[in-house]
Amino acid sequence: MNRKRKGKDGRTSRGKYIRKTIIVRNRAGEFRRVTKYISGRIGSKDQRRMKEASTEERVRRWQDKRAEDTLWGYLEENFNPGDCFFTPTYPPRSRKTSAEVRADMNDFRKRLRKIYQKAGIPFKYIMSVGRGKRGAIHSHWVLPRIDTELIEKAWQDVAGTQECPYPLCNVKHLDRSGEWSRLAAYLVKNGLETFRSAEPIYKRRYLMSQNLRKPKVKTEIIKAGFWKPEPKMPRGFSLLPGSLRSDWTGRGYPYQSYTVIKRKDMEKLNC
Question: What angle do CA 74, 77, 80 make, to 5 degrees?
Fold first, then answer.
């Protein structure tokens, strides 16, 4: 039944909002990222009164947030604790054009594919490339677990020069918590260094291989009297500390996002 509900001020409303849930599983457990927002195309006039002015900055923040959520889903669904987070660097004072960087990344990717094929490991990746204010290139790759010395050598063969044949490489591993929302945000932020510039390296915030599994996405239209500031937890799940975020969509309506995990997996997190 579509019963009208009264708010604290006595007004009635039959409001609606959209709830989008990305459901992922990896070796560390099950995680869900929830985003609820008012779209402006559904709901009541009361909801439309909640609208704030739409600005270019709000549009960008909303677009970047959605890109971050999408990347989080692919990262969680396709990689596991112990996989590689690889940061190759160029020789000092190296200032390459966007076209030259893309050529290097394509060369590196081809070498990686051969390395993984030889090792009998399916090759897949997520990567982002940015350029700092001083012109230095920042590249980050998420790759399946493998002998990292092979990865380092492949990059040095691509980017090394006579003056610096062995540019530095930083290799870390995805932690055992299995929840990498901060990594997803970091990768998107890195790609944004040139994404909207006059000379982008790539016209995307990040790139990924075509063989990645798509995470499960559940979209619902929820009927509710009024916007509730507190998130509702699914049965058996707990809120990930620090994940709750509230802001405005590109059209000026409120949204709220948060990540929940199964309670039995909470103790694994490095919060």
Answer: 115
